[in-house]
Amino acid sequence: MPTSCCALNCTNRKDKGSRKKFFRIPAEPGRRAAWLRALKRSDFEQGKKNPTAAWTPRGHERVCSDHFISGNPSKDPADPDYVPSLFNLPTSASCNRSRNPVAKKDRYMRAAKRLRVSSENEAPPTSLNDEEMIADPPPESVETLRDPLPESVETLREQLTKVQEEK
After folding, report:
1. Residue 159, class by beta-carbon neighbours within 10 Å (0-12 exposed, 13-18 middle, 19+ buried)?
2. What is the pTM of this model?
3. Which class for 80: exposed (0-12), middle (13-18), buried (19 or more C-beta within 10 A)?
4. Where is this region: Disordered (predicted)?
5. How far is it, in rounded angstroms, from Cα 67 to Cα 10?
6. Which residues of 15-49 are buried (b: 16+ CB within 10 A; e: fewer)?
7. I need a labelling partner for 2 at 20 to 30 A (CA). Which of 36, 59, 124, 152 fits?
């Protein structure tokens, strides 16, 4: 039996010589719900109101590669190909915003490249050899390392006490 795409208005079929790839709707509940929302099947939406009219995908439903920007679904939730996004749906007059999934994929690829480049550019921690550790002169005394902050706090307390006594 030939496989056909379950996306709305898609007539792609898997026949001999067909170069299209077909992918099962995921079984994982969260990802499956995202795919079903993306498919925008009106009979699926009607099923929320009338369960007898609902379209529920069975094990044989497939989505073709035409509905993915790269032609394959991704397992990365940040990737635009995590869910199918290219559809031949009728345009709505109420929706003025044009969403370009190819541009979304380009943005994702640029962001992934930036992350890869930034992780490569991070300097690895350098280890000090024995000579470098000895090269620093030891501190002259413990007094030079002592923090002057407690002394200034004590001075401020004394000044506050004097001001309060004057009142």
Report:
1. exposed
2. 0.48
3. buried
4. 111-151
5. 9
6. eeeeeeebbebbeeeebeebbbebbebeebeeeee
7. 36
Length of the chain as a residue count: 167
Mention every residue, 6+ apart, whose C-beta is less than 8 A from residue 78: 108
Q: What is the DSSP letter of 122?
A: S
Q: Under a CB-based contact definition with an 8 Å cutoff, are residues 8 and 58 in contact?
A: no
Per-residue pLDDT band at 95 (split at 50, 70, 90): very low
70 burial type by CB count under 10 A (0-12 exposed, 13-18 middle, 19+ buried): middle
- Tell whether the model's pLDDT for residue 67 goes beyond 80: yes
Query: Would you list the DSSP string of 78-116?
Result: TSGGGS-----PPPPTT------HHHHHHHHHHHHHHHH
Any residues with CB less than 8 A from the CB of 37 and at least 6 apart, and which?
83
What's residue 70's pLDDT? 86
Mean pLDDT of the 100-124 span = 80
- Percent of the chain at pLDDT > 70 equals 67
Flag whether pLDDT at 80 surpasses 50.
Answer: yes
CA 49 to chain centre: 33
